[in-house]
Design a protein that fits this description.
The protein is of the alpha+beta class. The chain has 2 helices and 6 strands; from the N terminus they run H-H-E-E-E-E-E-E. The N and C termini lie far apart (122 Å).
């Protein structure tokens, strides 16, 4: 039997072009996805590098204000909220009897968010503070 091969070459070229076009489109999509993931990883790294700056600011901030915001540079913003957990003035025992500590101790729970271009990281820490109490003798 003889087969008619007219138009068979054209059909092969069309199918090869379709396969080539779909593989190029898939490769471009993978490059796009890789770039987006790389960009998100870079943004996350920028937020992580500002964590030590945020901790230093919280250590020196007046936590009696309860809330606040700070700009940390590189488009990173710190938003914090402090809550007093406990306030205590310890009493100690001595040979002369009990006496109160000259310090008042404060324990705060600080929740804070680092924000950069839509990337938000939530953190929570406990901060210990003390204040010298003036005693009259």
């Amino acid at each position: 039997m003889l087969y008619n091969h007219r138009g068979f070459l054209l059909l092969e070229v069309l199918i090869a072009g379709l396969i080539l076009t779909s593989s190029i489109a898939a490769s471009m999509y993978l490059f796009k996805m890789g770039y987006e993931h790389l960009q998100r990883a870079n943004e996350s790294n920028i937020v992580s590098t500002k964590l030590t700056d945020a901790m230093n600011i919280i250590k020196t901030t007046d936590l009696t204000k309860e809330t606040g915001s700070e700009y940390l540079g590189s488009d990173v913003t710190l938003h914090w909220k402090a809550q007093l957990i406990e306030k205590i003035r310890p009493t100690y025992q001595s040979f002369e009897g009990p006496f109160q500590s000259p310090n008042e101790n404060y324990l705060y729970k600080v929740d804070f968010v680092l924000e950069f271009k839509g990337v938000k990281r939530d953190y929570s820490i406990n901060v210990f503070r003390f204040k010298r109490v003036v005693t009259d003798f």
